[in-house]
Amino acid sequence: MNPFDLSHRVALVTGGNGGIGLGMARGLAQAGAAVVVAGRNSQKNETAVAELQTLGAKAASVIVNVTEQASCEAMIAFAVEHFGRLDILINNAGTNIRKQPMDYALAEWHEVLETNLTSAFVCSQAAYPAMTKAGGGKIINIGSMMSIFGASFAVPYAASKGGIVQMTKALATAWAKDNIQVNAVLPGWIDTDLTKKAREQVEGLHDKVVQRTPAGRWGVTDDFAGIAVFLASPASDFVTGTAIPVDGGYSVQG
Q1: In the chain, what are the domains?
Q2: DSSP string covering 41-53
Q3: Do residues 140 and 231 touch, judged by C-beta distance below 8 A?
Q4: How confident is the model over 10-26, as pLDDT tens digits?
Q5: pLDDT, tens digit, for every residue of 108-140?
Q6: How far apart are the C-alpha atoms of 169 and 202, rounded to whole Å?
Q7: Residues with catalytic annotation?
Q8: Which residue of 2, 31, 126, 156 is 20 to 30 Å from 234, comparing CA positions?
């Protein structure tokens, strides 16, 4: 038996049409999972599905607004109806608004918290019945190194990602009896569309990241394929409630 085999498993990835989400979706597809890509942009969704299908995977897409409970519930229902079950949920959808703390509007705080944290809870809650019916499941929440330390320009983002870590621990405790493992991944500085904006907005960021990272580079989205497969597969059946940095060693530096 291959402990990393995901054949006959169905995965759903929010924000799976690009960036870290697509990197994880590729890994799951290559390990044999059927993958549902969920995102707001139908064209990006379709492009991602086509790419996963070229890897030999069964794949489908669904439009979702993760800040709306009904949309999250409909997304889960689509995955179950389309592939017959749901085994793996990756809560990856997220956003950031970079400002100094005194400059945020309350609406901006709510936007970040609802997109990054509340949505992960709502999607997990909606997935619970399908996973219990399947005999268990895997939930992977995407946190951030900002849950380890702070940044002056990312107060609501840091709060949301710190919340992801604590929510992960609580869900893991609650649902262990149902054979549902819940873990978090904490990305470091990864080359994505979101961090391209950060490099435009934060002077000297690129060089500072490279200098501090023992691996000597920014991460790329394919760096998340392996951790996704591990946390989604039987290989991690006794791993739950963890928060694993994937950052090239950035967060261990003083």
Answers
A1: 10-245 (3.40.50.720)
A2: -HHHHHHHHHHHH
A3: yes
A4: 999 999 999 999 999 99
A5: 999 999 999 999 999 999 999 999 999 999 999
A6: 32
A7: 157
A8: 126
